[in-house]
Amino acid sequence: MGLLAVGTPLAWPEAKQKADHVRQWGIEQLLAIWRRAKGKERDALLWGDEIEYLVVAYDDKHRKVKLSLRQADILEALAKDEDLCKQGGCVPDLQIVAKKGDTLPVFHPEFGRFMLEATPGKPWGIGFKDLLDVEPNMKWRRAIAKDHMEPNEYPITLTTFPRLGAKDHSLIPDFPPSGDKLRSQFLPDEIANPHIRFPTLAANIRSRRGRKVEINVPVFKDQRTPVPFKDPTVNYDLHKWPEDDDVRNGAAKDDHIYMDAMAFGMGSCCLQITFQAKNITEGRRLYDQLSPLGPIMLALTAATPIYKGFLADTDVRWNQISRAVDDRTLEELGEKPLKNDRWQIPKSRYASNSTYISQDPRLRKEYMDPGLVVDQDLKQRLMDGGMDALLATHFAHLFIRDPLVIFAEDLEELDLNRTDHFENLQSTNWQHMRFKPPPHDKDTGWRVEFRSMEIQITDFENAAFAIFIVLITRAILSFDLNFYIPIVRTTENMETAHVRNAVLDQKFYFRKNPFPSRPSKSNVTNETSGSTTPAQASRPTTPVGPIEDEYALMTIDEIINGQANGFPGLIPLVESYLNSVNVDVETRCGLARYLDLIQKRASGRLWTGAKWIRDFVRGHADYQQDSVVSQGICYDLVKAVSDITQNEGKNGGVGEEMFHIGRVTRPIGTAHA
C-alpha cells in the first residue's frame, strides 16, 4: 500500500501546475536520505512478506457470494482487540496457536474496501528456523482476520474476485456504478477505500489521461463462445459523463473483456516480499539480480484466469493492473505528436523494471534499456548532490512521472526530515522490483521489494514461494550469482508470462551461466547434471563477447529444475547453498516440503492456481462452454477455495486438500491422473 497522508488534495488541473514543485522537493528529500544513509553498514539481514485478502460474504440459501465492503469495520474490530494473543494464545475454534511471545500481525487497509493486507508483527530474521514459522504465521493471520468478521464472511486469497463488475453486481452493501471519481459503467466509487488518497488517485489518473482507463483482456474462446465476442456487459447508450463516449469511440475491443476503472487493477491481491540488505551495495546488487526472476515467478504463480464473470485467455494479473493505473496521455503514448507533454513514455507507471542500479563490473551497457526516458535535469541535480550516475539515472527515470495526489498543506515548506514528496513519486511507480531508501525516522536499512508474484489459494503455497525467494537471495549473495540479461528481454518475458499456461507451454530468456567468471575457493554442485562449477569469486570480471551468447530461451522447468548439460537450475542452486551451511536435519526436511512444491509446479506435476480455477469452471455442471462464469459457478468456486484453506493441513495433507464440486475431484494444483 502506498503513502497515506492527510490533507486537502488538489484536483488535477491545479496538481498539474504544482508537479515540478513536488518533483524538485522530492529530489531534495532523496538527496537528504542519500547523504544520511549512503554509508549505513551492517544492517540486520531481515525480510518480510505481505499477504492481501479479499473479504467475501456468502449467502448460502441463494448460493451467492459477494465482496464485503466492511474493511473499515474489520480493521476497527482488530484495533480494539489489543490483547489478542498478547502473551501467546489461540483464535477460538480454528486451532491456530501462537507461540508464547509471538508479536501480533499487523493489518492494513488497501485500495478496495473489500481488501485487507496483513504482515508479520516484526520482520523475519535470516535464521533457517525462522523460515519454518512463516506458514504458521500466515495461517494465524488469516485466522485472526476471520475471527473479526461476520459469521458469513471469510478472507480468501484469490487474485481477483471472479465476478467483480458483473451486471448483477458483486458487492455488499450494493451501490450503483458511475460515480464522479471512477465514472465507471461497472463499479461504484464506494468500492474504493474512503481515505482521500484513493478516490483522488483514481480521479486524477482519469483526468490526466483525458479519458477513463482502458483495460481489454482477451476472452478465452470455448466451444460456444460467440465469435466475435462482444462484451455483453458494456452499455453503449450511457450518457452520464463525457467519458461515456469512450466505448462509442472504440474503447471496448471485440474478443476482449472490457473494464474501465482503477479498481479492476488495484482491487487485485498479490504476494510481495521485502528484503533489508546489510548496506546499499548489497541492496543494489539484489535489486539487479532478482529483476530477471520477476517474470519467471509471475508465470510460476499464475492465478488469474477470470475477469468480470468471463474466462480470460491470460493467466496473470500484471498487465491488467498496468492498464488500470496508466495515466499516459495520447501524446505520451505516441498516438499524437508531442505538443503539451515532454516525451513519449513506452511503459505505464505500473510495469516491469527499466533500470539496473548495481555498480557490479559484470553489468554491461548492452544490458541497459536503450529506450529509457530520463529527466536529465533531475539526474544532474542528483549527481551534483553526490549520487553516482547509475543510481541517479534510476531515480531520474522514476521522476519523469507526475505526482498524482498532492496535498496543499505539503507545499507550504520543504522539510528535509520527511520523505513525503519523494514517496509521492516513488510509491506510485509500481515496478516489479522496488529499491527503497531508509525512512528518515526509523532504524531501517536499504531495502528491495520483489513484487511480481500472484497470491496463492493456500497459506502453504504462499509460504513456499516466500521461502523460495528468500533462499534464492541467500544463494545469490553466497555464490555471487549473475542473472543479468538485457532489460528488453525481461520486458519480453513479462509479456510471455501472461500467455495461458505459460508455465509449461512457453520459453523465457534466461542467463545460461550464472556463475562468476573466475574460479573460487568453494564450488557448487549442479545436482541436475552432477558436474562441479565455480561458485564464488571475490572479483568478478566484466563478460566479453556478444551478449546474445550469454542467454537463451528456456522453459520454466529448465530454469527452476535445471538442464542436463546447461543451466543448473534455481532449485539445485538453493540446495547447494543449503549444503554449504549448517542446517539441522529437521529444518532441512521442513524446507524440502516447500521446495518440492516449487519443483513440481515448474515441471507440471502440480498445476498453477490459474489452471486449477479454469479447470474447475469448465468442469462445473452449470458451465455452458461459452466462457461465462455464472453466479452459481462463482459461488461454488469461491466456496471451494475457502473450504480448502479452512481444511488445509488436516488429515495429513498440506496445501493439497481434496474437495468435490461437480465433476472436479482432485488435489488443488494437481493434474489428471
From TrEMBL:
Does Nucleotide-binding appear among the keywords? yes
Q: Which GO terms describe its cellular component?
A: glutamate-cysteine ligase complex
Pfam families annotated for this entry?
GCS (PF03074)
The EC number(s) this enzyme carries: 6.3.2.2
Enumerate the InterPro entries for this protein: GCS, Gln_synth/guanido_kin_cat_dom
Which residue stretches belong to region Disordered?
514-544
Please name the top-level EC class of this enzyme: ligase
UniProt-recorded Gene Ontology molecular function terms: ATP binding; glutamate-cysteine ligase activity
Specify the pathway.
Answer: Sulfur metabolism; glutathione biosynthesis; glutathione from L-cysteine and L-glutamate: step 1/2
Q: Which reaction does it catalyse?
A: L-cysteine + L-glutamate + ATP = gamma-L-glutamyl-L-cysteine + ADP + phosphate + H(+)
Annotated GO biological process: glutathione biosynthetic process
Spell out the Polar residues composition-biased ranges.
Answer: 519-541
Q: Identify the keywords attached in UniProt to this record, alphabetized.
A: ATP-binding, Glutathione biosynthesis, Ligase, Nucleotide-binding
- Lineage top rank: taxon: Eukaryota
Per the record, the similarity remark reads: Belongs to the glutamate--cysteine ligase type 3 family.
Q: What is this protein called?
A: Glutamate--cysteine ligase
**Organism encoding this protein:** Lasallia pustulata
